Amino acid sequence: MPTRQHLANAIRVLSMDAVQKANSGHPGAPMGMADIAEVLWNDFLKHNPKNPDWADRDRFVLSNGHGSMLIYSLLHLSGYDLAMDDLKQFRQLHSRTPGHPERGYTAGVETTTGPLGQGIANGVGMAVAEKVLAAQFNREGHSIVDHHTYVFLGDGCMMEGISHEACSLAGTLGLGKLIAFYDDNGISIDGHVEGWFTDDTPKRFEAYGWHVIRAVDGHNAAAVKAAIEEAKAETNKPTLIITKTTIGFGSPNKQGSHDSHGSPLGLEEVALVRKTLGWEYEPFVVPADIYEGWDAKAKGAAAEQSWNDKFIAYKTAYPELAAEFDRRVVKGDLPADFAAKAEAFIAESQAKGEKIASRKASQNSIAAFVPLLPELLGGSADLAGSNLTLVKTSKGITAEDASGNYLYYGVREFGMSAIMNGISAHGGFIPYGATFLMFQQYAANAVRMSALMKLRNIFVYTHDSIGQGEDGPTHQPIEVLGSLRMTPNLDTWRPADAAEAAASWKAAIERKTGPTALVFSRQNLDHIARTGAQVAEISRGGYILVDSVGEPEAILIATGSEVGVTVKAAEALKAKGRNVRVVSMPSTSVFDQQDVSYRESVLPISVGARVAVETAHVDYWYKYVGFDGRVVGMTTFGESAPGPALLEHFGFTVDNIVSTVEELLED
Ligand SMILES: Cc1ncc(C[n+]2csc(CCOP(=O)(O)OP(=O)(O)O)c2C)c(N)n1
Ligand SMILES: [Mg+2]
User: Around ion ligand 2, which residues have CB less than 5 A away?
Assistant: First the structure.
């Protein structure tokens, strides 16, 4: 049987060889953390390489995602569907070993990491999901949800602000099954960190309410093992294990230096590492006894089997709960009657004809859907009263009682969004979380990561424009809608009234392949009259709201709070004998996905005279109105004044829309 160090050396050598072959990558972190990973994976991690989707597996997150060869080596060695040939394709097009670990590309990669700090926040989300799911499903004598979340992170993650947001909340929520390993190697890209990172990290985490295990020798397997045992014994607090390591361990000339962080070691040094470690095999050759030492297939199958047995007993005792678990966690399906009930709610919202803010309409939708969907896990970054995310059936989650369905995220927009990503990646929940649209920019990269990972998340953004008024330009987004819409695989909805708000919530909940941003007004909006057929067409993202007689002279396109004023402008134009059409376009990406004949029926190519109306940056809309079209929109920041005064000041009036259309037709 090979020694522990020899098992760890397999990671070191595979990592340096793959980086060398790709002529690109980061050998330092995998070589430094190899011993820790070996102990964690071989002695503790509960997982089944043959079923990476097993619901009660431990979650492993490599927050320092630049060390991707560490996780690829672990997955390969322990028996996942990741062959040596895949390792040889490290960082190549369409390989299963992309530059940074990517969810969906590699079996066993739980979350995409690389943007430092987000992995630990995802890990916090996974631990939240475990804790809430356990509170909802476990019963006396039946612990069907009972797993740990392990996170590796480095100095970079520790320096990033998001780690403060997420770890602070993790302490408050008492996430006892979250165990993080800080790769305390004193090195980041620019060199020794003393010049830019001198926090007392143990004290910092103790102040958050974490259990901290200090100064563990990360190259001493027995010490690492003892630390993990101690961490698991602490069930009320998350644990940070601070492991002292040497970056690039095993490289005689580069270990301990940032030279080993992010470039190939070089062929000569690679040869010296082999000598130093006593590794006598060619690149990408692992001897049978090493594979044997790593093989987790039999142990993993047995672990899953024993859980399956537990689940059978649970199913006998609690058949309904077991069916819910299967629906929510295993399949991620909605209740069979959800679609019909949601349709009825949309129709009811249309019939009621209320003049309310779309954020209020959103709250009405949440109130209607939460009782139908226990998987909805809500929250807001300290703006519940403004975002209107709380409803009667919302129950806050606390350290002591995690059986609720609502998280008070505090003022942590980025943390909230990345935690939502972790909750969604874990499974069992559809998270929704809210802030002002302006502060989406604080969270932007986590929203992008959600879209990249194809996660089912609902980002709720209220106070969506200058219409929010007195708070002024610091709170009035101009460029955010455009950037949301330009994010691949993110659907953005900006509903015009209660019916569109309800339809957008339904679409967001039903979307399994990516996140949705729902954008709502602070101010009251007119109720819009629609036929039943028009109500059904909301789900197509864009539809004819007020039609012309035959082919229109001009088409007006509006979204959200500007639909009402645009309809009025169209009426004024019609009174002047103009034959115009109004298109409501709550979601451009959803409209773009419709078949060409539908799109052509709404926006016929033959009608070049087009005007878009939206209180956001004009540039986005030229795609729909063409270079010769007009946009009633924003090119500057807003101002501080009451909302109606600002809307008038910036031209969102019937008169200005009418004259813009007339000018265009007269040109
Ligand atoms: C948000 C973000 N900023 C910057 C980078 C670029 N980057 C990658 S690794 C790294 C330094 C990380 O230092 P550390 O976590 O200590 O890694 P080590 O060198 O110890 O492996 C930086 C700045 C990044 N990946 N993500
Ligand atoms: Mg470091």
Answer: 154-155, 185, 187
pTM, 2 dp: 0.98
Question: Residue 198 contacts by C-beta under 8 Å, 6 or more apart in sequence?
Answer: none
From 38, 413, 500, 562, active-site residue: 413
Can 413 be counted among the known catalytic residues? yes
Joined together, the tokens standing for residue 479 give 């460029």
- Residue 81 near residue 107 (C-beta atoms within 8 A): yes
Q: What is the DSSP string of 516-543?
A: EEEE--SSB-------HHHHHHGGGS-E
Ligand 1 nearest atom to the CA of residue 26, by list position: 21
* Residue 119 CA to ligand 2 centre (angstroms): 15
For strands 187-188 and 191-192, give the pairing: antiparallel
Q: Which residues line ligand 1 (CB under 6 A)?
A: 28-29, 64, 66, 114-116, 154-157, 183, 185, 187-189, 247, 261
Residues 415-452 pLDDT 10s? 999 999 999 999 999 999 999 999 999 999 999 999 99
Euclidean distance between CA atoms 281 and 284, whole angstroms: 8
In degrees, to the nearest 5, what angle opens at C-alpha 226 toward C-alphas 101 and 49? 35
Tens-place pLDDT, residues 277-323: 999 999 999 999 999 999 999 999 999 999 999 999 999 999 999 99
Put residue 186 in one of left, alpha, beta given phi > 0 → left and psi -120 to 50 → alpha.
Answer: left
